[in-house]
Structure formats: structure tokens, C-alpha cells
Amino acid sequence: FFFTFFDSYDMWWGTLGTVRPFSNFNPDKDAMELQAALEKKDVNTVVRILSNRNNAQRQVISQTFEELIHKDLQTALKKVLSGDLETFMLQLMMYPLHFEAFRLQQAMAGLGTDEETLMEILCTKSAKQLQDVSVAYNQFYKKDLEKELKAETSGDFAKLVVALLNKQSVSGVVQRDIEVLSASLKGKKAEASPWIDILTSRDVEYLNKVFMGLEMETGQTLDQIVEKRFSGDFRMGLNILVQCIENPFIYLAKRLHTMKTPVVHGIMVSHSEEDLLCIRAAFIKITDTSLYTALQKNFKGDHLQALLAICRSED
């Protein structure tokens, strides 16, 4: 299973990530060093090695560790690490597709659903990535992702979530879409379906033109329209979708700014090889503080060192 996905691994690799392949990569040396560090409970060395390799290299280390030491690296890590650091390092060890599937599964597990995490993933990943994540979800959890999402959500919000999972890019006519959205706001209760249809089936550049036109037509910002005319989970979801269409990096930076541990882990692991540099730039723009400094103020110890290694540098 993994190596069928290994080929599509390139799709996660952008030049705007903070984590790059380690240039003098020697998996045998890394595996032996890790084994020695784990025996001595030298957490610092464990963190240094794993957070300075990219995901593909971590997978090779994991395999090499098993071949040379006849132990499972994840299991060995669990014995030596604990708390938030353990969680973060194990997340870094997951295949990227498995990690997104895991985040979706966690957002739906237990009592209540973490709607914002669902929306974050569905809005910031491409159609191709989401198709691959659906396959991975099925492989790992033996369940159909679309059915699970439907079971965990309801009403217009459920329709929005499913439409995002199956998002596509169909050509439209800007003026016509502006008119359709404008008309949907005329009644006593705004209609959700045109918003779902149009915002999940056009490309970002096109939608930004539609947004500009709609703002001119109504004399309100899109935020104001969504806030005034919709309610509940659907309003929250639409709000996130609009933010991600306008600027996904600003949205992700705002989410990071909460400094909630699961959110910080999720975004930093998910975007470390894709576009974390863009998120860092957005973070300093909206908070006047670098992500690096914000992490230093909110976390400590080896956990902080691991986060800083993935963040990479000051801005």
C-alpha cells in the first residue's frame, strides 16, 4: 500500500516548504544513532535526527531501523518519548496521506465533531490530494470517508463538506455567478445551495473576481454577507471557505495564532514540505511576531526544539 502512494508523494512537495531533504542522508548511520539515543533516553538526539529529515527520508530510516535492529521505530519512540513531544514526533513519522486521513478521523472521533479542522483540511488541500486522502482513509480505517463525513455533519453544512471533498474546477461565467449568488440573498432566508455549488466548483482566481463583483453589487464585504445572512455550522464553514479562497495562508496563520497544541501540530506537520514558508510570512504579517518567536513564547523543552526545527528559522 505505502509504495503505491510513495510515487504520488511528489504532490506534497512544494519548494515553499521549510523541511527539505537532508543532503548527506545516511539511513544506516541515522538508524544506529537513533538506537543508541533511544537506549540512553537521549531525547535531544532523537529530535535532532528526525526533525531534520524530510518525510521520505524518515520512512527510509524507519525501514532501515527495522532491518538493522529488528524493532519497530514507532514502538521504540513511544517507550522513550511522552506527552506532546511523543504525539508530534509520531505524527512526523506518518506518511503524508496517512496523516491527513488521521487528522480527519480524529476530528470526527468521540463526542462532538471538530468542524473547524474538517474545514481546514477540505479547504486547503487540492482536489487531487483529497482524492488520495479518501483512498488512504479507506485503507487505514476500512470506512468510506464521504459516508463518515455525512454521518458526522448535518443540513447545509453536510452538503458543503461533501461538495468540498469532491471539489472540482468547472468553467463558469463571472457575471452570471455574481447574479446567482446575489439572487440567493434576496429572500427572507438566504439560499445555501448556490453558494455550495459555485464556491466548490470554480478555481480561486475566478472566485475572487466573483467576490469582488458581489461586494460591488451588494455594497457589503463578503464577511458581512456571510455573517448576516447565514447561521450555525454552515456560516462557520462558509466563512472558512471564503477566507481560504481569499488567502489560505492568512487563514492558516490565524489558526496557528491560537497556539492550541493540536492545531499547531496539525498545520506544521501537514504543511512542512508544502508551503509553511508562506504561512510563516502570513503569520508575521498579521501578528507582527514571527512564528518562531511565538512558538518560543508558548512551548518549552524538547517539544519546543522539535517545533522550531520544523519551523526552521526566524523571519
Automatic annotation (TrEMBL):
Listed Pfam families: Annexin
PROSITE patterns in the record: ANNEXIN_2 (PS51897)
Family: Belongs to the annexin family.
Tree of life domain: Eukaryota
Entry keywords, A to Z: Annexin, Repeat
Annotated TM spans: none
Species, as recorded: Gouania willdenowi (Blunt-snouted clingfish)
Signal peptide boundaries: none
Gene Ontology MF term list: calcium ion binding; calcium-dependent phospholipid binding; phosphatidylserine binding
GO CC, alphabetical: cytoplasm; nucleus; plasma membrane; vesicle membrane
Gene: anxa14
Name this polypeptide is given: Annexin A2-like
Cited SUPFAM superfamilies: Annexin
